Amino acid sequence: MTVEQKNAENAYLSIENVSIDFPTPNGPFRALNDVSLRIAKGEFISLIGHSGCGKSTVLNIVAGLYEATEGGVILDKKEVNQPGPERAVVFQNHSLLPWLTAYQNVELAVNQVFKGTKSKAEMKEWIEHNLRLVHMEHAMHKRPDEISGGMKQRVGIARALAMEPKVLLMDEPFGALDALTRAHLQDSLIEIQSELNSTVIMITHDVDEAVLLSDRIVMMTNGPAATIGEILQVDLARPRDRLEMAKDAEYNRYRAEVLEFLHKRHSNPAQKKPTPETSSEKAEDKKIRAVA
Ligand SMILES: Nc1ncnc2c1ncn2[C@@H]1O[C@H](COP(=O)(O)OP(=O)(O)OP(=O)(O)O)[C@@H](O)[C@H]1O
């Protein structure tokens, strides 16, 4: 059986022939063209590609925030056509309510999902359990302005996990953090993933992050009309240890494979013909190189 057939059989989340046109003053702009991806339960998928290729658009369609012009998304046999708590999103910039403590921020989401099904005591235990999962039990009664950026991101992840989503959607969740904090959070995510076996789609610009965390890395072509260019299956044994990985020849082969895709086979067109209008894309490309 081919990998493709195996994925089709095990699909928990299916993105089927998705295309999207955004209206612009010059007519419709096709951002994504014919994107298809089948994801198994418990799989960790990274989406990587140059700035503006459409990664967030894919995630927003799965989240139900954007509607595909063609094709659609099916999660656990049901079509996705609006946002819902079974698809929790973690953004780059933590979106905690500033006047609530870490505990209360998680409580808000838990109330939304479990009101009527869990007792007050069960809810308290569940909120604390999720804060413990991200190692935030010591600061659960602090407000966002009293904790660091990395801690806020941990609370954002706890809040998403506490909703017990079928799929966790992460849009550059560690993009705004310094390298060390980022590494700590990646390690926490590896730990959580091995404990919960969550199904995850994560957007990243960081090649090491993608290889370290993913079962498959989905590499997107440049837009407009972006689509999936290649998919890299990462067959590294778990649990993965970052220090051991750095010396592992297989790990470095996967890493080189992603870099080749991004900088050779699908290099950023902004780099080839630099113009003032593309300066923001060039900055983004530097971001990919800097973290690679
Ligand atoms: N609501 C919208 N209306 C019009 N165009 C949009 C809209 N959302 C995205 N686009 C366009 O679709 C393309 C893909 O954008 P998207 O944000 O998905 O890219 P991305 O790969 O996530 O970028 P980045 O890595 O910089 O976050 C871009 O050309 C963008 O300008």
Automatic annotation (TrEMBL):
CDD domains recorded: ABC_NrtD_SsuB_transporters
Domain of life (superkingdom): Bacteria
Pfam families associated with the record: ABC_tran
Compartments in which it is found: Cell membrane
Keyword field: ATP-binding, Cell membrane, Membrane, Nucleotide-binding, Transport
GO molecular function annotation: ATP binding; ATP hydrolysis activity; nitrate transmembrane transporter activity
Domain ABC transporter: 13-247
Composition skew (Basic and acidic residues), residue ranges: 279-292
Region of interest called Disordered, as start-end residue ranges on this chain: 262-292
GO cellular component, one term: plasma membrane
Membrane topology designation: Peripheral membrane protein
Family, similarity comment: Belongs to the ABC transporter superfamily.
NCBIfam families registered for this protein in UniProt: ntrCD
The protein, known as: Nitrate ABC transporter ATPases C and D
Source species: Simiduia agarivorans (strain DSM 21679 / JCM 13881 / BCRC 17597 / SA1)
